[in-house]
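Quick question: what would this complex look like in 3D?
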Amino acid sequence: MLRLAWVGIIASAALAIEPLAKYFTSKEDRQKFPLVVYKKPLAENSGWQNTAATRVWVKRDTLGVMAMVATCTHLGCEVNYHSDKKQWICPCHASIYDEEGRIISGPASQALHRVSVERQPDGSLIINTSKQVGMDMRV
Amino acid sequence: MKDHTTFINHIRPRSIPSRALSVFYTFCLGGLSFLAFLVLGITGLLLMFHYQLGESTSFGSILTISSVIPYGGVIRNLHYWAGQLMVVTVNLHMLRVVWTHSYKPPKQLNWLVGIALLMLVLFLDFTGYLLIGSQESGAAATVAVNILGLIPGIGAGLAQSIFGEPSALSGSTLVVYVWHCVVLPMILLLLQLYHFWRIRRDGGVRPL
């Protein structure tokens, strides 16, 4: 009788593995919106401007508007802009990028990612962080 | 080795008095309460993996757990209904003890422990209700804070230490979270173990 109880306990524990694994690994409660909006006016050649509470930075030069994500391409830390040196420096492993996000020194091996920007009729910008674009893309 | 000398022998004694097998004397109400406590502990721990405490996030995360996370609805409903069941069984257990006069010596101390356990269960029930973070939770928290605030002198400080500063729209605060998930369950568990040990110590279940 007791042996039967053990079989029951082990069987129900085995049956609970799959539901529990699904429950634990679910990420459906994590919000992931790839779109970021920038509404402030963007003056030409005024350097990188941060969008509110995100890692996305926007800049306007003579050719147009571009957007860059300040996530280190090495292991994903947020890189900081040092305006005195005009460099992006990663606080985790000291990767250094120049003002445009190109690599100066490793361990990162890729430039900071540029992402697509769309200009709305009212002048605001919609940045799609899930869509990577080339370094010389301007809008 | 005597039967009651080790924990293993306590859980699986070689012999038990036949009167202890009588279901209709206690109706297993204490045991059912403890079973509900175990279910609450396990499902509560599971809920903590997806619950997001915060004035504006609690209620949303509860809804997400119920309807989006795989098996989250099962876990949340188990937690909810085990909580309801525990309040019911604990109260019935207390009525049974009164009915069979089991509060009398030598069990008078265990009766007082039982009353403390009842208070803990009710407070756990209430804090759990606040952690849902709905508007009802906010109203309940506001009422509780205001009632406690009526106590002269210490009222406001007491309300602050028990409920934090709940908003009228949510009720879920970090203080309530800590009480509900850590402090109260710990006290309840320790007191329960003492409660069970005390039963044997006082001579077990003995019909009059």
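Answer marked as accepted. The two ends of chain B are 30 Å apart (CA to CA).
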